[in-house]
Amino acid sequence: MTVQETAARMTEKVARDLVLILQATPNEQLEWQPGGGRSVANQLVECIRANGKWARILTERAYRNLTDAEREDALAGVSTQKALGERLIVSADALAVVLRGLDDAFVGSETPLPWKTERTRTWAEACFHAYWNMAYHEGQIGFIQTLYGDTEEHADSGPFGE
C-alpha cells in the first residue's frame, strides 16, 4: 500500500469517526466552551478548513495559508449539526481524492514548510497533516464530552474499524 493510499484511508476514517462523535453531541453542547476553550463546532470547522487547505497545497505543490475568502467559503451553508458533519465528510473525501492522485516521485520529494523547526519535510509527511489535525481534535472533543458527563466511546473502534 502506498503512502498516498494510507493517508487517504486514514483521512476518510477519522472524518467518519468525528461525524459519529458529532452525532452523539447534544445540540446544546456544540458551542459550549469549557473553561473558555474551543467548542466542538469550532474544532470541526477548523478540520474542514484544514482539509481544504491541504488539498489545495498538495494540488498546487506549494504551501500557503487560506485567504479570508477561502476560509469563509469552506463554511458556506454550514448552519446545522447535520450540515457540519456532511461538510466534514465532503472535505475529507475531496482531500482523499487529491492524495490518491499524487505520484510517487512528488510524495518522495522534499519541501520547506513554515513550521517552527528549520528543516525540509517530505511531501509524504505533508500528506498526513490534515489526518493528524482531525485525530488531534477527535481527542479534544472526546475530552469535552467527558466534561458534560458523556463517557461513552462514539467513534468506531480501532484505527481502521477493527
Task: Write up this protein.
By secondary structure, the chain is mainly α. The protein is built from 7 helices and 2 strands. A two-stranded antiparallel ribbon has the order 1-2. The mean pLDDT is 90.
Number of helices: 7
Determine Rg (CA atoms, Å): 16 Å
End-to-end separation in angstroms reads 18 Å
Number of strands: 2
**Approximate helicity band:** 55-70%
Secondary-structure blueprint of this entry?
Elements (H helix, E strand, L loop, with lengths): L2 H21 L16 H21 L7 H6 L7 H20 L3 H5 L1 E3 L7 E3 H4 L2 H19 L15
Antiparallel strand pairs: 1-2
Put the structure in a nutshell:
The protein is mostly helical and 162 residues long.
Task: Throw out a few tags for this protein.
mainly alpha; 162 residues; 4% strand; 59% helix
